[in-house]
Input
Amino acid sequence: MDWLQILGPTLLVILGGILTWIIRSRIEESRAIQQKLNEERRKTYSEILEPYIRIFADLKGKGPAQAINQIKSYDYRKTAFALALFGSDNVVRAYNALLQYGYKGEAEENKEQRGETYMKLWGKLLLEIRKDVGNKKTGLGELDMLRWLISDIDKLEHTKDR
Output
């Protein structure tokens, strides 16, 4: 019994140290995985947004045609698969909504309404990406994400009330 009283506290300290080391290594491993996932998401989000940025940067030139060709490319489709795998649920949903609206083609809306809907869906995608990369508690809305881009954004805001 004397040996238990002498070695007991030492064994508890050693076991506590081992347990602490195991927990700490698992936490560090989890953080490293999360950091790698965040880096992959940011890279994927940038690549997904690139053709849309091209459209907005060059509305009267070759930008839109180049963007459409880029969206149809193998590399872009590969990036879209990466988005489906690595993107957050809300970003994937926002991207899907944008593309589904595009797939439906000319619906009953007129050209102006269609443009407004596209812009709102684009703003939603940007907002969801913003939230996913670290601004979870942002107070911005989808139209706020576009305010810097659209000179007559107030017109879009008033169509929300229709």
User: Anything to note?
Assistant: The chain has a mean pLDDT of 84. The chain has one domain: 38-159. The radius of gyration is 25 Å.
